[in-house]
Every structure is written in structure tokens, then in C-alpha cells.
Write a structure and sequence with these properties.
This protein is mostly beta strands and 127 residues long. It has one domain (19-116). It is 9% helix and 28% strand. The protein contains 1 helix and 7 strands; from the N terminus they run E-E-E-E-E-E-H-E. The strands form 2 sheets. The protein has a 4-stranded antiparallel beta sheet. The longest helix is centred in the last third of the chain and has 11 residues, at 97-107. The mean pLDDT is 92.
């Protein structure tokens, strides 16, 4: 049985080779920068995810495909934010307006896609 990883915390699983390197690399946050769990955004589990040519490829019924670069050097401080995961402040990078609009449309609620900053402290994800 293949182990399943979740590139978007609280979202759909992915059993593809190499996916472990991207387990819980991204998360969705609400307007208060608080993590949206799978319970708060249940449609996250319906996404079809794959890793292709250096991108996290995200597909959903009725939506255009969304490609998010896997490995980007974080050198733009203007997109750095702090997200709240449980009781922990987490250093994150905002993935931009296109990703935010895509997920807001899919989930039917305002939200933003964030990537855990590569230099962030380990995240204590709630189960």
C-alpha cells in the first residue's frame, strides 16, 4: 500500500513518488490568517493533486487547472506573512492573487493559499 501525503494541509492525499518532500507544504488561511482545516473547508478533500515538471498541479471539477511552483527561492519579503495554526504562529509565503481567487471560487469562501516558509519552525499540525 502506498503512503499518502497531503501537500495542502487538511486537503486531498497524494501517493505519488516524491510527494513526501511536499507533505503539508501549503495551507489555506481565512481573512484572519487562521488555517482552514479540512473540517472548515471540506471540498479540499475533493481536489485532484499531482506533481508534474516542478509544479503542484491542482484540478477540481468545473475549474481550470492551477499550477503552483514546487521549489521557489523565497527572496521577496513583501509576500511573507504569519499564519495561525492552532496556537502557533507560522512563517508563510502568500502564493498570490490568482491562487487566492481560484480557491475562493472552489471553496465558496474568501481564503488565500500560503506556503510554509522553508526557514519556518516545524509546524505542530492539529489532527
Amino acid at each position: 500500500m502506498t503512503e499518502s501525503f497531503h501537500p495542502i494541509a487538511g486537503g486531498a492525499g497524494l501517493g505519488q513518488a516524491g510527494a513526501g518532500d511536499y507533505d503539508r507544504r501549503w495551507l489555506l488561511v481565512d481573512d484572519d490568517n487562521a488555517w482552514l482545516t479540512g473540517n472548515q473547508a471540506p471540498r479540499l478533500g475533493e481536489l485532484e493533486l499531482s506533481l508534474r515538471f516542478g509544479y503542484l498541479v491542482i484540478r477540481a471539477p468545473g475549474m481550470l487547472r492551477l499550477d503552483i511552483p514546487l521549489d521557489v527561492i523565497e527572496d521577496d519579503d513583501s509576500v511573507e506573512r504569519v499564519a495561525r495554526v492552532g496556537n502557533q504562529d507560522v512563517r508563510v509565503v502568500d502564493e498570490g492573487d490568482l491562487a487566492a481567487a481560484w480557491f475562493a471560487e472552489w471553496l465558496g469562501q474568501p481564503c488565500r493559499l500560503m506556503k510554509v516558509h522553508p526557514e519556518a519552525a516545524p509546524v505542530a499540525w492539529a489532527v
